[in-house]
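Our preliminary data section would be incomplete without showing what the modeling component actually yields. Below, a chain of 191 amino acids is followed by its predicted structure, encoded as tokens that our downstream tools consume directly.
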Amino acid sequence: MSLTTAKIISLLVTITGAVALLRGASFHWFNNHQGYAPAQPIAFSHKLHAGDNQIPCLYCHWAAEKSSVAGIPAASICMNCHSQIRKDAPEIQKIARALKENRPIAWVRVHDLPDFTRFNHSRHVWAGIKCQQCHGPVETMERISQFRSLSMGMCVDCHRTHRVVTVDESGKPIITREPTREKLMASTDCS
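Predicted structure:
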């Protein structure tokens, strides 16, 4: 192999490695899916339901009040209203068919946190935090989209701004021998 060929191969390997490294870094640091708004199997408008009709988030996403997850509503939740309202509309017929066939609707997940993330919806609901704080103005969205980055930095900023207090499972503040506000605050130091 000539010296020129070796230099070209070395340069190509270096460039390929740099591109792979940068793609990996962008996936890790910048892959936050902000703005992600996939098509769904049912054309569901949060603007119509949560906005125009003012249906509370917790009516459909009832699990958020008692669980760590908000959950995607079952078809039966939709049919609580749509067994009477607009029941002949094509999109409602898809929901009714799924329910009749005992088949879940294959919704495309929009808000997805990494597996290592510990987030509990119920604690935030009970703290009085509005869904829009993290999910954006859902009541204005025809198609749901990921409005914010949902990054750890976003969570840490909110906890610092609101001086969130760490609590135990019963909801009582965790007090140490020397109760100071700093010791009561949830940790926001990730170093």
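Residues 74 and 104 are 7 Å apart (CA to CA). The chain is about 45% helix and 0% strand. Preliminary results of this kind motivate Aim 1 of the renewal.
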